[in-house]
Amino acid sequence: MASPLDDAVRYLPDGLSERGLATLYAQLSRLDQNFEFYSAIEFDFLLQGDVLSGVSHYAFLPDGSVRVAKARVMLLSNTCDMSSENVRHDEVMVSVAPIMRVSRWMDSLRDRGIKPAQIEDKAKAARLQRLTNVVYLPAAGDIEESFVLLDKIQSIPISLLPNLQEARTAVLSQAGQWMLVTKLSMHFSRQLERVARG
After folding, report:
1. Digit-coded pLDDT (tens) for 155-166
2. pTM for the model
């Protein structure tokens, strides 16, 4: 007899359930070979997936203190939610995730005593978009090979974002934005917890 969990999985999109995850990973790993990840079009408004530099980000340290630093981040809020055309009665908040160069990410693992072979395996999986807590950003032009850290997302007032034209360093292409939405779904919505909630 099927469990309630098995029955519930039938209603999920394949990519969010275990049965479709292997196929999804295989498709994601091929995407960077088939499309431009970034757009060459210039926009005068904020878009989901924009890479901005000089944004205040809060790091929570082991001793409980908080350090504020200017960081490179990716905007994760929906484009329409950040639009200035929408009338709001509350302050608009935007969700951002910090971006770390792959080389620095690997150095941080090395500093924590992770073995080189394990670091290489983890980096390879991340580059193939197989880690659910990072989005891999390929190098292009002035953009270094980097990871968007989805487990360090924060929301900040939109008024604290720096000047768009000065701060924006990349805009995702249409396919790049689809990749981002897929990775966000994998990070927040995959149903592999195996807990029967009743």
Report:
1. 999 999 999 889
2. 0.81
